[in-house]
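Forwarding the complex inputs:
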Amino acid sequence: MPKAPQRPGPSRRETTEVALPSSAAFQEAGVSDTPIQAVPVPISGNEEPPAASRFRIFIVDSGWNSAARRVLLENFALIRDLQREDPIYVLSRERSIEFMRRHGSRIGRDPIIAVHDMQALGKRGTAGFHGFRLSLGLLRTPQQALMGLQAFARFLVTHRQSADLEADIRANLRREGLMGAIEIAMHHEAREIVA
Amino acid sequence: MFDRFTEVVSLVLGALAVAYLVYEIDRRQRKLHDLWDVLDGEDAVITNTLEEMVERGELLPYAGATLA
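Prediction (whole assembly, two chains):
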């Protein structure tokens, strides 16, 4: 029986998360998964407290010198701002390499962004659907990688309240495949992201 | 005779066009599934490993503004 995941960190109703300057020191030391600091901050009566995290986002990047990696690095701050409600866990290079050594079929697909749907994990554990992953490293050009990253951010933001995330993902994949075919039939250029 | 021939050619070309469309839809969907993959029972080990790292405090939410 899979263990039901716990919600990350302290209650956001009472605290807010701030990045301290010392995070640079962690990076210099080769530790990319810098601890987040929680500082109690009173919330005024008018402010709605942020909802509990629906997702946990994991980034696995062993450090290939690829367009996808550069795009991820350049746009990470924006991704973080867009996904403010969800914790992002960045595996260090060493951990990512260890991960790739254990799961060799994933080599060359990183950076990989894995999203755990905490709602699905809480209900069914890891036996069934419990999230999705974007293998950004499969996108070879900066433009493709950027479009992939944008689609990722868009999907998370627009499906945060989804009752059935799996159905939404499968429907989107079907629609994308069909759209590509329609574009071919209409003699339009094929979609860059899947070309 | 000529009409029959053009009919056959049209049919073959039409069938080829439909086959190409089906092939292209399938190819794109495979590629998309490769790119966007759902996590299910096959990924249970990886998911559990990552979740356990979080529970143990080995992985903490990233606080930096940018990636190194």
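The mean pLDDT of chain B is 85.
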